[in-house]
Each structure stands twice: as C-alpha cells, then as structure tokens.
Amino acid sequence: MKIVTLDADTLPVELQKPDFCDRWVYRKSTDERELLAVLDNAEVVITNKVPLRAEILKQLPALRFICVAATGFDCVDIDYCRQRGIAVSNVPGYSSRSVSEGVIASIFALRRNLLQYASASSREWLHSDHFCLHKAPINDIQDATLGIIGRGEIGGAVARLARGVGMKVLFAEHKGQQNVRSGYQAFDEVVRESDILTLHCPLSPETRQLIDHSVLAMMKSSSLLINTARGGLIDEDALADALMRGKISGAALDVLTQEPPHPHNPLLTLKHPNLLITPHIAWASQTGVSNLIKGIHYNLAGYFCGAVKNSVI
C-alpha cells in the first residue's frame, strides 16, 4: 500500500508510518502541478489543504481513499469521489475545545480592548500623570449577546462556554430561510441583535461570502465579527470597508480567503486598533493537535481493515 502525505508541514508534529504501509511518501508540501507525479500508483492520500479536484482525480486510477487531515473537506471534490467510489474521511470534532476557547479568548481581547491597552503600556503609561490610563471603552462579556452561525460541534462548544460566562446565545437559521427551526432565530434577527457574531459553518457555494456588505450593514456599530471557520465566508473587501468606516467596531480572524494571504489583502494593510488576525491556529492547542493525529491514524486503520471511519460521503 502506497500512502502519500501531501502537506505534512501543516501539522506541528510528524505522522508515523503505519505498520501496514509498504510505501510511505511523506512530503512537507506539494504544489498542485506535482500532484500527478507524486500520487502515481498511490492508494491512499492524506491532505490538509492541497486541493484534489476531479481533473486530477480522474487521472489517478489507483487511488481508493482520501484522508483529510482536518474537519472541513472543501478541498476535495466530493461529488466526483462519490461517482468514482473513492472513500473520503475527515477528522470531526478534534479541535472543538481548542477553537471554542480561541473564540472566547478573542471575545475577551476585543470587548475589553486588550490590544489597545497592551500597546499603550510601553509608551503612554510611562508619561501618565495618573496610575491608570483611560483610552478605549472596556465592555463586559457577561450579558453580551453572542450570535452563532453554524450549530455543529464547535458552534455548540462555543455556546456552552459563552453561557458559562453569562452571555446570551442566539443560533442563526440559514440565511434567507423563511421557516425557522426550533432553537434558532431568523438570520437577519441574529445579525441585528448580536454584540458578537461568530462563524462556525462550512464553506460551500451557499455560504461563500455569507458576510457581505448587506450583512455588515445590519450589524450594530458596536459589534464584533469573529471567524475561525473558513476565510471565504467573508467578503474581505466589505469587511475592511466596514471596519474603516466604523460600521462595526472590530474583528478577530483566524482564517482568510487566501492562505498564506496575499500581501495586499485589504485586512492586512488596514491599521485598525481592534482587528486581530492570527495565522489559522485556533485549532492548534496541544490537545487539538493530539486529537488530530489520533484521528488520522484511526481513519487509516479503518480503511486498512475494510471499514471506512468518519466517511463524509
């Protein structure tokens, strides 16, 4: 059995070769132009973010199993795999604790304006006439309203932590959906009522640029936007404009549409006191990494034993 890992450097620890693997090709990174050569005669491929589209997959007759080293599997052409009988597994739930804690940490950082006060400590405080500095307003977390878009495992974990610190939690129904399910509120209502809006839905044709000019215009001017899901959920030009014009007060983004980002991404060039951008690491606590590695090996062992685990097809 030939197993190829395409982008091992996206993992902070190294995967170990399974005993049942005859050929273990462990690549730190792989350019899309290399895929056909690298995956020649491969039965199993492990990918995190390297895309596997139909035009590539149709030229890989030996391929039988794709293990996505993540929960999101938008990098794989699922429809083609279903037609061809290629099994596809992901690793669900491995980062729920890590990402949900990251969201809550971002809420504390932004609501309490820690970014501005931390930067002030080395300059203005030295020359202050008083023991404290009053700059940006500090807002409490308790009693703030958190709107959650996406009610999967991570969205649910965020809700539990948020309620634990006294926040009011609203789950948004799908955008444009007239029939609102029990336990949800209409999308537009959640957007208008939330002090913080956090995204936890998959990226799909229906959710691409879900947060656009019209949605941002509905948000409170004091509200915050948090995205730890997929960068493509947000129209980045619209968000940069909203931040610059004060239509919303801040954002915490762990993901961008293009990763690594383009140097001229409007959010990277925007100098905003309440914009926090991190390099797609909300998932990567030590617990999250350990869970991911275990999940990948679990999926590989399942395929080898003839029982595909965590199938997404």
From TrEMBL:
Domain D-isomer specific 2-hydroxyacid dehydrogenase NAD-binding residue range list: 105-282
InterPro entries named in the record: D-iso_2-hydroxyacid_DH_PdxB, D-isomer_DH_CS, D-isomer_DH_NAD-bd, NAD(P)-bd_dom_sf
Superkingdom of the source species: Bacteria
Keywords, alphabetical: NAD, Oxidoreductase
Any Pfam family: 2-Hacid_dh_C
A GO MF term: NAD binding
Tagged with keyword Oxidoreductase: yes
Family: Belongs to the D-isomer specific 2-hydroxyacid dehydrogenase family.
Name assigned to this protein: 2-hydroxyacid dehydrogenase
